[in-house]
From TrEMBL:
Enzyme nomenclature, EC number: 2.5.1.18
Taxonomic lineage of the native organism: Eukaryota, Metazoa, Chordata, Craniata, Vertebrata
Any Gene Ontology biological process: glutathione metabolic process
Protein known as: glutathione transferase
GO CC annotations, alphabetized: cytoplasm
Keyword Secreted: no
Length: 205
């Protein structure tokens, strides 16, 4: 999301997080950062395979993800927690229903086009595609919209991702998302509210 801090401006020309600073090198955008880190640290091949066709499948999913899963899943968190926190007003239930309908369409495509009958998105091993997908899909769960409950294929995929990452690390990585409702109890600086409320509302348009 946007950041007005001076430090963010030095790392990312877009003044957005996430951003990476590695020595004198700076990089923005989460997908670019993931790919950079996987190459720099010579991660196990299954994360971003050397095989050109398997790698293309990861790239294919990452390209699709941003205009489908990412276009809907995070909005559940904005609607149920963040926008009410910054505006002081809940949004109409119709807005959440609209987002959930869009997310349901994306999840159907995810299962039928990408997951199919495979263990993971590109085959028998976990990849960066699975990591990017699961982080987004845990956001509705964190605000009480359990998208896995009535989707056994998706639920089993999540279980396999948890096992591949390690359950302890998995829940540690998603701790903030799963406890996002606790934010509703904090006090927000009025000036910050004034700055961010219009930005958050704009994201839902």
């Amino acid at each position: 999301g946007p950041s007005n801090s001076e430090g963010a401006g030095k790392v990312s020309l877009l003044k957005k997080v996430p951003a990476l600073k590695d020595g004198d090198f700076t990089l923005a955008e989460c997908t670019a950062i993931l790919l950079y880190l996987s190459r720099k640290y010579n991660t196990p091949d299954h994360w971003y395979p050397a095989d050109i066709q398997k790698r293309a499948r990861v790239d294919e999913y990452l390209s699709w993800h941003h205009t489908n899963i990412r276009a809907n899943a995070p909005k559940t968190m904005w609607i149920k927690v963040l926008i009410p926190l910054f505006t002081g007003q809940p949004l109409p239930s119709e807005k959440l229903q609209e987002v959930m309908e869009g997310l349901s369409t994306s999840l159907k495509q995810f299962e039928e086009r990408f997951l199919q009958d495979k263990a993971f998105i590109i085959g028998s091993e976990i990849s960066l595609a699975d990591l990017v997908a699961i982080v987004e899909l845990m956001q509705p769960v964190g605000v009480g919209c359990d998208i896995f409950e009535d989707r056994p294929r998706l639920r089993e995929w999540r279980r396999r991702v948890e096992d591949a990452v390690g359950k302890e690390l998995f829940f540690q990585a998603h701790e903030m998302i799963l406890n996002i409702k606790e934010l509703s109890n904090i006090q927000i600086d009025p000036q910050l509210k004034e700055q961010l409320a219009p930005v958050l509302m704009k994201m839902l348009k």
